[in-house]
Design goal:
Layout lengths: L1 E4 L8 H7 L3 E5 L12 H8 L2 E6 H6 L11 E3 L1 H10 L3 E3 L1
Parallel strand pairs: 1-2, 1-5, 2-3, 3-4
Length: about 90
């Protein structure tokens, strides 16, 4: 399943989301990219989950965070985003 996090991690229940994930891909987009900041407590939670973690480059750039994102997150463009949606038959948006 593809999970998308588009809200700031401080504005959603990230621990609950992570309890729902058995495995899959998580894409951070819009304000969700804040969860990928290097050294953040939110990133530590995400890295413990059985997921592949991605962040949308355009949203990192829009917030001036490209250099602040953890190197443990794969930064992708819109083409790869489309590939992820094609790979997964279902999606859960947060």
């Amino acid at each position: 399943m593809l999970y998308t996090l588009s809200h700031s991690p401080s504005q959603c229940d990230l621990p609950t989301l992570l309890r729902l994930i058995v495995e899959g891909d998580v894409l951070l987009l819009q304000d969700g990219v804040l969860a990928g900041l290097a050294g953040s407590a939110y990133l530590a939670l995400l890295l413990k989950a059985p997921i592949s973690l991605y962040a949308l480059k355009a949203d990192l750039e829009a917030r001036g965070l490209v250099g602040c994102c953890s190197n443990q997150i794969t930064i992708i463009g819109y083409n790869h985003f489309v590939t992820l949606t094609e790979k997964h038959c279902s999606q859960m948006a947060w």
